[in-house]
UniProtKB/TrEMBL annotation:
A motif (TonB C-terminal box) lies at residues 746-763. This is Iron complex outermembrane receptor protein. It comes from Luteibacter jiangsuensis. Keywords: Cell outer membrane, Ion transport, Iron, Iron transport, Membrane, Receptor, Signal, TonB box, Transmembrane, Transmembrane beta strand, Transport. Residues 62-171 form the TonB-dependent receptor plug domain. Residues 291-725 form the TonB-dependent receptor-like beta-barrel domain. The keyword Oxidoreductase does not apply. Belongs to the TonB-dependent receptor family. Residues 1-24 form the signal peptide. It is found in: Cell outer membrane. InterPro entries: Beta-barrel_TonB, Beta-barrel_TonB_sf, Plug_dom, TonB-dep_rcpt-like, TonB_rcpt_CS.
């Protein structure tokens, strides 16, 4: 019964599709709502609405797009009980999206086995994050609060033709609400356990009598006291975020639409702590390796920990930006779009990498990122069988940073500790240029050929100084290591697809696409020897995909199916070197190498069924077989003193199965609508680091959630209550692997069972 949850997911998916016709015929009208708001609920529960996405840079029906894409409306995100973007975990096949390791503001995203978990600024994300078509360069600050979202799109597979930079694994598109011609607004308050208290508001109104101008303002304050505690009574892994977004829209006619948006987010949290999962060690230059901490992994993690940091050392982040999106309708066939943006991200974070009372991996990271971007899109549509998009893109990013690593417990001489400090000052400037074109041509009725290509050129200038300071009697080992590099990379990334529309409800497609992520420089190169080999090359992926999109004629059943094969080469892997052979001194080395060639094969299924009056069933299932064809790591050589034949048996963040089933039922109650729902999501074993260690893996597990909503008949009031992780499952989400320093391996855990209640007023 090891895979019972998965069997249940597949069985329900097949079962509800097979029984739909009979259940629809037998459905009664006992719960038919009667009021205006309730009738809206009834319509949503008896007819699937068509979903419009902009996956190919123009608005299209999701079921007509030859791309594997999942879409979620504002209400969908609420039913997922998602307050930030990582709430999508479990809802998208073959996707891993969790809070990044050791950081309250980072997000770790992998799609189909491709991503980048390291938040250091010299590593680019593998999955692109976009907010209102503006690319977010850092995974730091990308744990976006969902307080004014219109919808979210998740594109699976490389998006190398139409999207920004470095979208090799896929793209997550967050689209926020634009002000309209009708006044509307809402206020919402939420309370829950772990001291959860949240407030959200949204307001939109036209300005002036002619309706050409409109404006909106949205904001949120989210707080909880934290779910990890130390033995002194302090709380960690908390939330304290304030966000606001204002928009001004000018829409004088059907030929022009411009939106100016400003946003600001402030986070001020305690440390984000995990659990040591391997023995922590000190190197005594006389006595050899000494164990400082031997964790008892046989015991269930109880969300209690220790740290060497003072309780007032935490993590602060300020993220702000301005964007101007303008659309001109040049004629009936031509449309021009401009996206201009500037963003600034400032972060000062203390991170206890070893998550213990010892000072082994205690770091401070402060950086001040600035990015400016400009994109132009010229779209053509002949109103019949030909559509195209031509564009140009430019991004400039500058990221200076300061880092301190404190490790006074890492070394000793005959039992007496030796103070150790490393300081790092670096500055990275990235410039990215691109030109792209994409054409969609229905060359005969019901057959459509699409092709596109993008040329990218990216340059990076990197300056770094690393200084190492030892206490007595090792002060003679103090050194300063400079590193200065610059390089350009270029790439062509094409895509091609062929689709057949068999009937209005059935579409099949086949596609091939290439993704590219530029090379870079290792921001963890601390020694003179490492500095000489600090450069790594670009990585590339080709994905071949076929899919089928279906909808029943009565709009009560919808399914999207996809199968894919990916060739992924020159994977940029950050690995560890544990110790110099024949030496007591750890290497401190974290080389980044173009280590591997991978193959990924898999399939994905998403389905929704409306059964009777008010019952909605849905499922998402993903299968992924990810394996290395080659991994160039000296530790795989039997002659190497660090030989480990299993160190790369598994691809990180690539569980073989991901599955979710969900059900909601809407009833008429007191003139309003009562909706109850539940879901269960399942994933098989997941490895949490490139270097495979059993302690940094998570066995298969299932998470269960439930909620209830009451909407008043007049549409003004909504009451909601829910529980997440209802079975109080203890599970790992991410890991730190720094075994070349004190044998550090640290696991981070998902939130225990948590529940809440909220009230919302719409006006």
């Amino acid at each position: 019964m090891k895979h019972a949850p998965l069997t249940l997911a597949i069985g329900l998916a097949i079962g509800f599709a097979a029984t739909l016709p009979a259940m629809a015929q037998d459905a009664g009208q006992a719960n038919a709502p009667t009021t205006t708001e309730a009738k809206k609920k009834q319509q949503e529960a008896t007819q699937l609405t068509e979903v419009t996405v902009s996956a190919r840079r123009r608005e299209e029906s999701l079921e007509k797009v030859p791309v594997a894409v999942s879409a979620f409306s504002e209400e969908d995100m609420k039913d997922l009980q998602a307050t930030s973007i990582d709430g999508l975990q479990g809802a998208v096949p073959n996707m891993n999206i969790v809070q990044g390791r050791g950081s309250s503001s980072s997000v770790n995203i992998f799609i189909r086995g491709i991503g980048q978990p390291d938040a250091l600024q010299t590593f680019d994300p593998g999955v692109g994050m976009y907010v209102d078509d503006v690319y977010y360069s850092r995974i730091q600050g990308a744990l976006i609060s969902l307080f004014d979202v219109d919808h979210v799109e998740v594109l699976r597979g490389p998006q190398g033709t139409l999207y920004g930079k470095n979208s090799t694994g896929g793209a997550v598109k967050v689209v926020t609400k634009n002000p309209g011609a009708t006044p509307e607004g809402s206020v919402e308050a939420t309370f829950g356990n772990y001291g959860r208290r949240e407030g959200r508001f949204y307001g939109s109104t036209p300005l002036g009598k002619d309706g050409a101008w409109s404006a909106s303002l949205a904001g949120a304050i989210t707080r909880n006291d934290g779910y990890v505690h130390d033995y002194s009574g302090h709380d960690f892994n908390n939330d304290d975020t304030k966000s606001i977004r204002g928009k001004l829209r000018f829409h004088p006619s059907d030929t022009f639409d411009g939106v100016l948006a400003l946003d600001y987010t402030k986070m001020d949290t305690a440390l984000t702590l995990g659990q040591p999962v391997s023995r922590l060690t000190r190197t005594d230059l006389v006595l050899g390796t000494v164990t400082l901490l031997q964790p008892n992994l046989d015991e269930k993690y109880n969300f209690h920990t220790r740290t060497s940091f003072p309780s007032n050392d935490g993590q602060e982040l300020t993220h702000k930006g301005v964007a101007l999106n303008m659309n001109w309708k040049l004629s009936d066939q031509w449309n021009l779009k401009s996206i201009t943006a500037y963003r600034k991200l400032d972060s000062e974070s203390y991170i206890d990498i070893d998550a213990s009372q010892f000072e082994l991996g205690d770091v401070f990271v402060g950086f001040h990122q600035k990015q400016a971007s400009q994109e132009l899109q010229l779209a053509f549509d002949n109103g019949s069988n030909l559509q195209s998009v031509f564009g140009a893109y430019f991004l400039r990013e500058n990221v200076p940073s300061t880092q301190y690593a404190f490790a006074d417990d890492l070394f000793a001489i005959a039992g007496r500790t030796v103070p150790f400090l490393r300081t790092i000052g670096d500055d990275l400037t990235t410039k990215s240029w691109a030109g792209f074109a994409h054409v969609n041509w229905e060359f005969v009725p019901s057959w459509t050929l699409a092709a596109g290509i993008r040329y990218s050129r990216e340059s990076k200038d990197y300056d770094r100084t690393t200084s190492t300071f030892w206490g007595a009697p090792l002060a003679a080992l103090n050194e300063t290591v400079p590193l200065a590099r610059n390089k350009d990379w270029t790439a062509w990334t094409p895509t091609v697809s062929l689709q057949k529309q068999f009937d209005p409800q059935t579409m099949w497609y086949v596609s091939a696409s290439r993704g590219f992520k530029s090379g870079g420089f290792n921001g963890r190169a601390n020694s003179a020897a490492e500095a000489k080999t600090a450069e790594f090359d670009p990585e590339y992926v080709w994905t071949f995909e076929t899919g089928l999109k279906l909808r029943s004629a009565d709009n009560r059943l919808q399914a999207n199916l996809a199968a894919f094969h990916s060739n992924y080469k020159d994977f940029q892997a950050r690995v560890s070197e544990i110790q110099n052979p024949g030496s007591l001194t750890p290497t401190f080395a974290f080389p980044v190498i173009n280590a591997a060639k991978l193959k990924m094969d898999g399939f994905e299924a998403e389905g929704v069924a409306l059964v009777g009056e008010g019952t909605r069933l849905s499922t998402q299932i993903g299968y992924l077989k990810a394996k290395y064809d080659r991994f160039d790591d000296a530790r795989l050589d039997p002659s190497n003193p660090q030989y480990n034949p299993t160190i790369h048996d598994h691809v990180p963040f690539s569980p073989k199965w991901t599955a979710r089933v969900a059900a909601t039922q809407t009833f008429n109650l007191a003139g309003g609508a009562l909706t109850v729902g539940a879901d269960a999501s399942y994933r098989t074993e997941t490895w949490l680091s490139v270097d495979n260690y059993a302690a940094l893996s998570q066995k298969a597990y299932t998470l269960v959630g439930a909620f209830g909503i009451f909407d008043s008949g007049d549409g003004h009031w909504q009451f909601r209550a829910g529980v997440r992780n209802a079975t109080n499952k203890v599970y790992k989400t991410d890991g730190q692997e720094f075994s070349s320093v004190g044998n550090i391996r640290t696991a981070y855990y998902g939130m225990p069972r948590n529940y809440y209640a909220s009230v919302r007023y719409n006006f």
